[in-house]
Amino acid sequence: MTGFLDEIEACIPALRRYARGLSHDRDAADDLVQDCLERAMRKRSLFRPLGPVRPWLFRILLNLYRNDQRRVRRQGIHIPLEPDGNYPDASTNQQSRLELAGVAMALQNLPAEQREVLMLVALEGMSYEEASEILEIPTGTVMSRISRARQALRTATDAPPPRLRSVK
């Protein structure tokens, strides 16, 4: 049991980052992580220790988030998805801050399925296979959603596409 709790504890910072990226609200993200951890503790008998706890926790968190979003849509409550300004300070100059805010807004405007997969892979450093397992979609779908998300971010921020290095 102690190993299980240690694994859960090690995942908390990553869960908080992901929840914050999904909700764009620090308080809502903390509530989401707390709900995720509570559910994990209540349902720990359902966890099959065939692999790491991390994907299981991310799946719980994502399902809770999606359920909450469905509830909000049914009730017709509008939740503003504005960046709260608590991003790492890229630089002290105004241009860098504006660019960072532009990227945050572009990320916020991505379709949910693209934002979810991009954050798992780019922010959390998960492999396509791990993201595929968490989102319960084929790996090819993960790859195409990431590609579309990156293209949408480039378009929204007017960033040039990455240059490919020539192979000699």
Automatic annotation (TrEMBL):
CDD domains found in the cross-reference section: Sigma70_r4
Domain annotation PhyR sigma2: ranges? 8-61
A biological process term (GO) from this entry:
DNA-templated transcription initiation
Q: Does the keyword Mitochondrion apply?
A: no
Which keywords does this chain's UniProt record carry? Sigma factor, Transcription, Transcription regulation
Q: Which residues form the RNA polymerase sigma factor 70 region 4 type domain?
A: 104-153
Coiled-coil region(s): none
Query: Which InterPro entries does its entry note?
Result: PhyR_sigma2, RNA_pol_sigma-70-like, RNA_pol_sigma-70_dom, RNA_pol_sigma70_r4_t2, RNA_pol_sigma_r2, RNA_pol_sigma_r3/r4-like, WH-like_DNA-bd_sf
**What's a Pfam family this protein contains?**
PhyR_sigma2
Superkingdom of origin? Bacteria
Which GO MF terms are attached to this record?
Answer: DNA binding; sigma factor activity
- Family per record: Belongs to the sigma-70 factor family. ECF subfamily.
Which NCBIfam families does this UniProt record tie to the protein? sigma70-ECF (TIGR02937)
Q: Any idea what this protein is called?
A: RNA polymerase sigma factor
